[in-house]
Fold this sequence. Notes:
Layout: H1 2-31, H2 48-55, H3 57-90, H4 93-108, H5 111-131, H6 140-164, H7 170-176, H8 181-192, H9 194-210, H10 213-218, H11 226-234, H12 240-271
Amino acid sequence: MVKKLESFIKRFYLLIIFVFLYTPIVTLMIFSFNDSKSTAKWNGFTLRWYSELFQNTRIMDALKYTLIIAVLASIIATIIGTLAAIGIHRMKGVPKKTLLNINNLPVLNPDIVTGISLMSLFIFIFPILNKIGINAQFGFGTMLLAHITFNIPYVILSVLPKLKQLPHNITEAALDLGATPGYAMWKIILPQIKPGIFAGLLMAFTMSIDDFVISFFAAGNGVSNLSIEIYSMTRRGISPEINALSTIMFVVVLTLLILANVNGDKKTVISN
């Protein structure tokens, strides 16, 4: 009886959490199809706000920059983060612990601290670059560098657990059998840690799409992502176009997560 009561309380508690988390999202998605600007009264089904959304040039430009930066930043951060994770995994003792703590700092830091730090760094570097003939200013390049910077620690944290699951002497065994270090890395290490790499890539992509604070401090004139654009739109009042845009973003991220889980389940079944 006591165990059943504990099980019921746990499930009820979990249900309450999901209700509080997803009720606002479901409400937003429903009213994105409302044939009225009201968010309190349902006036009928329509796709008008989605049509107007795709005709809004500012939002389309923001979407373009968001996708380009997210794709480039996630790929570059995944490459750098994977190589860094392999290097950290092969280290031992105090240097390894020190690098792991340094890697954890950006993850634990508030985003506003990271954003202001990167902005200060860019402001410091710009005069130096301008003196050598490089026209440096806030814009696409600074936002891309900022996204790569804050994505790398998450990729490292995604890849390291898979590296720890590998046999300790797998690289040495491959080298003893005549494989070159590059061949051992490409054909033995990377295939084994592929799920971790994919998880890091997916996390970096979603973090880039979702980011607002760091992008706000690293963006320049003429460059904006969806988070910044939505913020500027909300300052003028809630528009149904925001609901439509948020619904699309939520569905895209949810689809990516489902695909990632399905892919992981298939690999688990095959390996078993």
